[in-house]
Specification:
The chain folds into three domains: 29 residues; 131 residues, D-Maltodextrin-Binding Protein, domain 2 (3-Layer(aba) Sandwich); 131 residues, D-Maltodextrin-Binding Protein, domain 2 (3-Layer(aba) Sandwich). It is 38% helix and 18% strand. It has eleven helices and 14 strands. The chain starts with 10 loop residues before the first helix and ends in a 9-residue tail after the last strand. The relative contact order is 0.16.
Length: 322
């Protein structure tokens, strides 16, 4: 890679490097080199940069390791959660919900996580999970391929919609999208509606591409990491899910003083809860009944509160026609 390329490092890796010191860092580099050498479909270089300088590091194009089997038994409910939050954030937020699901249905529950939205869609396509919390962009992609169907949607603040917010550091002089020209920008995932499709559509309307407009872009693979990248100055701007931003601010009020919103999108249908096409009708009804009823119980309301959700309702499919 050239001198101007940069890869976003999750906090967990930074902590490990700081704790273990230089020998551990060298070992990580060696192992990563071996892995990349074996990836016959590696495509980290994106064309369009002047002078041969790479401007986008797109790690989602690396050939994935063979997937682990997530089927542990017939009775297990396998719940996939897209990487809208970082893995740690997902576990923290979803643990009360998963525990309540397991208790209510008297069946073991397994949380299934993958790095990218596309990998979760692949699990749905294979029928390797029973239910999934995904982003709107991933749902639209899944519907095109007829690999999933919508089950319910969350209601948040009385709304069934959400928006993409373009954010910058509060202390910066940036005030508009044009001010981000020639800057570093953070996307969340290549099939994220709010974290990729929306900001790219803004550039398309200007006759621009991300390569021509930004100096460099990075994929963080979660909205909370994109938010943190801007707060920490790793990226000058990012496009994030407004619900995740509000949730992050509630959990960490200091973010309010670090982040400023400079643009808001139109409203989109909220990220849905989906099931694979091949799921048995009886299992679908059990899950649907549980989700539509969860807000009627105190423990259920507490589990929903950890997710920032009021309740689940039947979907309005017209909200996804965009």
């Amino acid at each position: 890679m050239g001198q101007n390329t940069k890869v976003f490092k999750p906090d967990s890796l930074n902590r490990e490097m700081g704790f273990m010191g230089k020998p551990f860092y060298v070992l990580c580099v060696l192992l990563l080199s071996i892995f990349l050498a074996g990836c016959d479909t590696e495509k980290t270089k994106i064309s369009g940069s002047s002078g041969g300088v790479q401007k986008i590091i797109q790690l989602d194009k690396l050939a994935p390791l063979p997937p682990k089997k997530v089927t542990d038994g017939e009775d297990i409910i396998r719940v996939a959660v897209a990487a809208i939050l970082s893995p740690t954030g997902t576990i923290d937020s979803y643990s009360p919900f998963l525990a309540y699901l397991e208790k209510s249905l008297d069946r073991p529950v397994r949380l299934v996580q993958r790095k990218t939205y596309e990998e979760i869609n692949d699990l749905l396509s294979e029928g390797s999970v029973d239910i999934a919390f995904i982003c709107t962009g991933a749902y639209l992609e899944g519907i095109k391929k007829d690999i999933m169907s919508i089950l319910v949607v969350p209601q948040i603040n009385g709304q069934l919609t959400y928006q993409s917010f373009v954010i910058v550091q509060e202390s910066s002089t940036l005030r508009s999208l044009e001010d981000l020209r020639g800057r570093i920008f953070a996307f969340t995932d290549p099939i994220s509606n709010t974290g990729y499709f929306y900001p790219v559509s803004l550039l398309t309307k200007r006759g621009e591409t991300s390569e021509s407009f930004f100096e460099r872009t990075i994929f963080t693979y979660s909205h909370d990491r994109s938010i943190q990248a801007v707060a920490d100055g790793v990226a000058d701007g990012a496009a994030v899910d407004n619900l995740i931003l509000e949730h992050a601010r509630r959990r960490n009020p200091e973010l309010t003083d670090l982040i400023r919103v400079i643009r808001k999108s139109e409203k989109f249908g909220i990220p849905p809860v989906v099931i694979p096409r091949q799921l048995e009708s009886s299992d679908k009804k059990v899950l649907e009944r549980f989700l539509l009823d969860i807000h009627n119980h105190e423990e259920g309301r507490q589990a929903l509160a950890a997710l920032g959700i009021e309740k689940f309702v039947m979907p309005d499919l017209s909200l996804y026609n965009f």
